[in-house]
Design brief:
about 300 residues; mainly alpha; Mitochondrial carrier fold; 10 helices
Amino acid sequence: MSRQSQPLLSYDTLVHAIAGATGSVVGMATFYPLDTIRCRLQLEESELGKGGTLRALARLSKEEGVLALYRGVVPVLQSIYASNFVYFYTFHGLKSLNGGAKGQSAARDLLLGAIAGITNVLVTTPLWVVNTRLKMSGTPYKSLVGGLQHVAQTEGVRGLWAGTMPSLLLVANPAIQFMTYEALKRRFSPNGHMTGLMSLALGASAKAVATVITYPLQVVQARLRHRGQGAVEASGILPALLALCKRNGLRGLFRGLEAKLLQTVLMAALMFSTYEKITRFVLTLLHRRPRLALQ
């Protein structure tokens, strides 16, 4: 094994990946109903979102039962663990190869975040295609494996990667998020020591910035995943955006944004807080200096 490959296979990189994946599961499990509302608002031309997110939650639970808020939760948690494990492992492995904290800069964090995001999209898109459909009523399958098999049989293997192009463009979301988070962390905690409240605040701020910038692409992504490669909107991202604008105005590009912001900002805050605590705890047990947990 070459010395350059060791950071990619190091225990530190594995700890960051497990901590990041675990933090994302904790965050998603806590705020999952908000993700359900966001998905329904993006995909349905209904009055569900009228009156705000809280009323939408109450209306959906009343009309379809409380369990509807958690439809497809197990496959989503499985997928988000796999997805964030890939992302964090790639991001921190590449970061170690580039000199760790010594080589940090906003531009480099953005580049590494983009590479990690592309890797994540190419590996895990089939999981998210199935999960998007599991949130909707009337889905002919109930599990992740069953959904993967059904889509492959009915739409071909290509159908498992429906919406890949907007997903690739959306690597800007976690890239912007990580760049913002790392920049804020260097600004407000140059020595690497952060309180739980600071981790929550920085994680929430970084995710809010990334979400607002990239949200229209997320709407298109959800529609392509739900309808498959044969959808009219699969003709291109720009035609899909223009079609949404023509049908619903500019507001159509941000349908469900309130629910998305609540869910992702709260989830990111909890995820980064959990992630920082796990990495610091585990690496401290290994007699490492706490600041290495943030590299």
